[in-house]
Design brief:
Layout lengths: L2 H19 L9 H25 L6 H26 L13 H11 L4 H22 L1
Helix pairs in contact: 2-3, 2-4, 2-5
Length: 138
């Protein structure tokens, strides 16, 4: 390789690094942006946990009750893991404020269902949206 080729490669690498540092490359998030995105996920997991546990007594079959209990437990564990990760990042969690109003209202509307079957359909919809949000982060 000639000296010119090496200089051109080094310049290209430097330009790529500068682009990433200047925010032109969307493949990486800053720690504060990561914390903000994870906070949203945390509150969604928390609300799904509340929904699952809240509907557990109203479920008509034992199998549905145990599934809802398991779903609530899984969401609570995910919320706990997200909370631990967010504590490592800059920014605050604003725990005293609780779930942001727009998220809470959205999830409460889905919780109002005439039957446990209708609730499970709403729950599945919310879960699919949560998974899509997670996919956007990766």
């Amino acid at each position: 390789m000639t000296n010119f080729n090496l200089q051109a490669m080094a310049a290209a690498d430097t330009d790529e690094l500068a682009a990433r540092l200047n925010g032109r490359d969307d493949s990486f998030l800053r720690p504060a942006d990561t914390a903000a995105a994870l906070r949203t996920m945390l509150w969604k997991e928390f609300e799904l946990s509340r929904l699952a546990f809240g509907w557990m007594p109203a479920a008509t079959t034992y199998e549905r009750k145990t599934r809802l209990g398991r779903f609530g437990y899984q969401h609570a564990c995910s919320a706990k893991e997200l909370h631990e990760r967010i504590k490592e990042l800059p920014g605050s969690l604003n725990e005293t404020k609780g779930t942001p109003e727009h998220i809470r209202a959205q999830y409460e509307r889905m919780a109002i269902a005439p039957s446990d079957v209708a609730f499970l359909i709403s729950y599945q919809f919310l879960l699919q949206r949560l998974r899509a949000d997670y996919d956007e982060l990766t």
